[in-house]
Amino acid sequence: MIYRETGQFKTSYAADQQIFPIRQDRIGIAILLAFAFVVVPLTAGNYWFNAILIPFLIFSLAALGLNILTGYAGQLSLGSAAFMAVGAYAAYNFQVRIEGMPVLLSFILAGLTAAGVGILFGLPSLRIKGFYLAVATLAAQFFIVWCLTKFPYLSNYSASGVISVPNVEILGYTFDTPQSRYLLVLSIVSLMALLAKNMVRSSTGRAWMAVRDMDVAAEVIGIRLMRTKLLAFAISSFYCGVAGALYAFCYLGSVEPDGFSLDLSFKILFMIIVGGVGSILGSFLGAAFILLVPIFLDIVLPWLSELLHLPVDSATVSHMQLMVFGELIMFFLIVEPHGLARLWQIGKEKLRLWPFPH
Amino acid sequence: MQFFLEVLIGGLLSGVMYSLVALGFVLIFKASGVFNFAQGAMVFFAALSLVGCMEKGAPLWLAFILAFGIMTLLGIATEKFVLRKMVNQPPISLFMATIGLAFFIEGLAPLLWGNAVRRLDIGLVDEPIPWILEHWNMVISKFDLVAAGLALALVAVLALFFQYTRVGRALRAVADDHQAALSIGIPLQHIWALVWAVAGFVALVAGMLWGARNGVQFALTFTALKALPVLILGGFTSVPGAIVGGLIIGGTEKLAEIYIPPVMSGIFGGNFGGIEGWFPYVMALLFLLVRPEGLFGEKHIDRV
Amino acid sequence: MARKIGEVILDLRHISLSFGGVKALTDISFDVREHEIRAIIGPNGAGKSSMLNVINGVYRPQQGEIIFQGEHRKDMDTHAAAAAGIARTFQNIALFKGMTVLDNLMTGRNLKMRCNFLQHALWWGPAQREELEHRRKVEEIIDFLEIEHIRKTPVGRLPYGLQKRVELGRALAAEPKMLLLDEPMAGMNVEEKQDMCRFILDVNDQFGTTIVLIEHDMGVVMDISDRVVVLDYGRKIADGTPDEVKNDPEVIAAYLGTQH
Ligand SMILES: Nc1ncnc2c1ncn2[C@@H]1O[C@H](COP(=O)(O)OP(=O)(O)O)[C@@H](O)[C@H]1O
Ligand SMILES: [Mg+2]
To answer: Is the pLDDT of residue A85 over 90?
Structure first.
């Protein structure tokens, strides 16, 4: 009964084109935002902010970036972590090299820098597709991390490329509590998610999906493949770049190039596979899921080992983690290739028809 | 000049090893259209299984057979539990599934066989060949030469297998057209299991050789990363492409590692070693910009 | 409204196209007049689809000249063709499978939309207005093709016949001057064929759209087309009104299978 669109006749195309056409969805989102912006800051503890909420939001943003490129535009990338690294290091350099640079501006510039690098590494997509492109994005992964390690200038001559970022300060206010950093990250991520949603539901997004689904037909319609693909690379990298900047400035405080490894790229890829390829919501669901799995295992495995009287050391736990990740990915690809977002949608539809099954 | 040749030959010899791993990819791709990212994990798993069996007291030959058996089981399981359930999905999803498979195997292998780095003795030592050292004043590793010889022999055997045996012909028929192969009664699933077993065999040989050289450890999974640029260069479907691509990547990579960092240090100061991580990729990419169809591919225009 | 066939709008001269060693088209010339329905027929592999691909720039011929609306070109470019008002459907349906019917049709209007990605990201204002404006146009086409009930359905889930119809809709969404249809009725049952025929005639009639049509069903071709080109083995073997073509000995030979 709660979730019904009965009686909600759309009287105009404008109403039909709203971001959330169903009233219950609108109310749900409003409640969720109020909860995230008001209730959580008032109630959550530091562990929650530092270990769960902030990384969750940042990885959601990175996953969103990858989802734009892979889920919407259909160009598989295995180098998202490298674009995060570009963002982190660019923001750091803008901060330390330019006196009085506003932090938010340096985040934007970091995103733009990542976008530029993204375009550069997106160029091969004009000639190659599919696996070939996926493998080619590995070039970005390895090359960028190598550059950040080897060019001392990029890390302001710190040892082995480690950078420690200054505190975030906006208009005289210093974001030094976990709570304040959470709110900053939440605001940025919510805003960028909204912008992304707007892009994917307009002709920019349709052009991406057209190129993804049938590039020849897209071309025949008059969509320029080059421009469309490069735009996807640029915007995706922009999102990953901002995520990287937040990762350094609002989460870890100090990062090194090797932290942005191929493994991190895979993790982000797993987020969109589990969450839902080609879904904004899925990016968030997937990030939450992938971040929670290790936490869950950390709790469950020791408990299990006690129960079965089997010793489990930390190496074993990390191997089990690998296996669980691997299995999850295969499981989702086999059972629900559209991920959690699809399950959520199916659940909603069920609710809508309840109590009549058809 | 002598030094240049020494580096080049060393590079070509390790290039043959890249070819070997690349061949594992090509086999599976040709037969089932799957780009198996887990090939590197399979190399790791195979090598670990081999030393694991040897540690339990088996001689090398027996351990090799046992490890091959294990790889075959892994291949059959992969076919049965993963690939068979994904037949109607786009190739890129299958590719992502094999990334999952890679993670799974990378976790499973040390759980089964232990985590420590192991030495693997196959009766070959990594020392310069005295005759070449004497006459040409070049350091060419005996190990590398024998390993490359073995790898080449394996590649040749596989090529012959594909060309002349009944099973090989069936495999090629499958590679050319799944539907047609089905319609003339070739059991696809058996063929796929078989091809995964063959790829497991290739992984085992590669794992044995690399493991004996550098120790049996997690780093063996990176062999896949070495083989990927070879595939871009040579194409996913071409056996000669894998061989020539491996040689090109191996040779240029070692030369670049020796000659480029000093130049960069001269310009920027600092140390620029370790370019072999990305150099092959960038080179393969630049090559593709000039020739998108790869080394041996044919120019292809999408049909609509 | 009585249709009036106008001047030559598309003129193809001495087009030759080959793939490696395979000659798909050999020295083919014909023209298309404004508002007419021009059919291309011929056995499988004759080069019909290749001909359409040459017209809108998917394939580039090695020789020949294409004159569209007075503009001379060595070959077409897909974007230029779309911009000049050429839209098409494909022999093997080439819809955007992951998108809804509505989105497929909206994508068809991509070239007419002017907002950039920044405006889209902000949405409120120009992007929203533009979206609405085009939505209205697309809804007209949805009405015209009688596919209101499936507008929110992902096209991958539709039956074959409906997909063909949606693909026609996507082409129509561009409000084309010329429509290239590659076997629009292949694989359909009689009823679906009749619907499709009606749509094609209506489009031609109501919007004055010039239509180049590849079709195997001789009855349909003879019924609805004004002039017919016959290809065989990449060569033109006949060109004229349905009646002329029907009685051409070479055409009869090609169809009655003195070869193959
Ligand atoms: N993209 C392509 N690559 C290679 N050969 C092609 C391609 N497109 C068409 N051909 C060849 O051109 C010839 C004509 O094909 P096509 O135009 O599809 O014929 P039709 O549409 O009349 O059946 C055929 O021999 C076909 O194999
Ligand atoms: Mg055709």
So the answer is: yes
Verify whether ligand 1 is closer than 6 Å to residue C47 (CB atom). Answer: yes
**Residue to test with chain A: of C76, C110, C143, C179, most A Cβ within 10 A:** C110
Helices (H), B56-90: 60-81
- Mean pLDDT, chain B, whole residue set: 87
Output the six-digit token pair for C222.
Answer: 């003879």
Q: Tokens 């063996």 identify what position?
A: B220
Residues C168 and C191 in one domain: no
Buried b (16+ CB within 10 A) or exposed e, B95-134: bbbbbbbbbbbbbbbbeebebeebebebebeeeebeebee
Burial of B177 (0-12, 13-18, 19+ CB in 10 A): exposed
Question: Is C246 domain-assigned?
Answer: yes
Q: pLDDT of B143-166, one tens digit each?
A: 888 888 988 898 888 878 877 887
Rounded distance between C-alpha atoms, residue B292 and residue A130, angstroms: 13
- Whether C199 has its CB under 8 Å from any CB of chain B: the answer is no
Give this prediction's pTM: 0.93
Host domain of residue C31: 1-85+176-260
How far apart CA C71 and CA C80 sit, in angstroms, is 11
Residue at C90 is within a domain: no
- What burial class does residue B88 get, using C-beta atoms within 10 Å of its C-beta: 0-12 exposed, 13-18 middle, 19+ buried? exposed
Residue A4 has pLDDT above 80, yes or no: no
**C175 and chain A: CB distance < 8 Å anywhere?**
no
> What is the domain class of A45-353 according to CATH?
mainly alpha
More reliable by pLDDT, B69 or B286:
B69
* HSE-CB for A358 with a 13 A CA cutoff: 0
Residue A73: which of A22, A118, A117, A24 has the closest Cα? A118
Assess: ipTM above 0.90: yes
Strands C178-182 and C86-88: parallel
- Ligand 2 centroid from CA C91, angstroms: 6
Q: How far is the CA of C44 from the centre of ligand 2 (A)?
A: 7
Residues of chain C with pLDDT under 50: 1, 259-260
CA distance C52 to C99: 25
Domain boundary among C148, C174, C200: C174
Q: Does residue C92 belong to any structural domain of this protein?
A: no
